[in-house]
Amino acid sequence: MYTTTPTAPVRNRFVFAGLLLIVLLLGLASRSAAAKVLPEVVRDYSGDILWALMVYLMFAVLLPKATANRVALLAMMFATSIEISQLFHPDWLEYIRNLPGMRLVFGYSFLFSDLLCYATGIAIGWLSEISWRKIRSRK
Asked: How is 61-99 classified by DSSP, letter by letter?
């Protein structure tokens, strides 16, 4: 006998793309000169948390039928692989990192705290989506 696994409702790509754009702008703002007014802990970690949330939203847009669990897993695998890549500095990767804007994507130096920030950002995306789906299903 075959059993079927429940599928996630299809995400609205426009909503998630809009959220992605908002998070992207907030992330850039967190690295701007205007962010100097924020507390140091917020300045130090908000960019990485927002970057990971953006990665979650990117996978949610690209895979609208995937479950929130799958999106979170893929986002964490992507973010972790980017962070681990910062342990290596071959010429070709340094060339990519030095292209305009690529340092924001690929970073430069490995920090364990970044992995914690990534887990936090992805958890925010995952928990928000799960919570929103539960609220919507009650209506």
From this structure: HH-TTS-HHHHHHHHHHHHHHHHHHTT---HHHHHHHTS
Q: What is the DSSP track for 41-67?
A: HHHHHHHHHHHHHHHHHHHHHH-TTS-
Residue partners of 46: CB distance under 8 A and separation at least 6: 27, 30, 38
Q: Where are the domains of the chain?
A: 13-138
* Burial class for 43, CB neighbours closer than 10 Å (0-12, 13-18, 19+): middle
SS3 category, 9: coil
Measured CA to CA, the distance from residue 72 to residue 53 in angstroms comes to 10
pLDDT (tens place) for every residue of the chain, 139 residues total:
555 555 667 899 999 999 999 999 999 999 888 888 888 899 899 999 999 999 999 999 999 999 999 999 999 999 999 999 899 889 998 898 899 888 878 888 889 999 999 999 999 999 999 999 998 888 7
Q: What share of the chain is helix, strand, coil (3-state, %, to 5)?
A: 75, 0, 25
Longest dimension (CA), the chain: 62
Which amino acid, one-letter code, is at 91? D
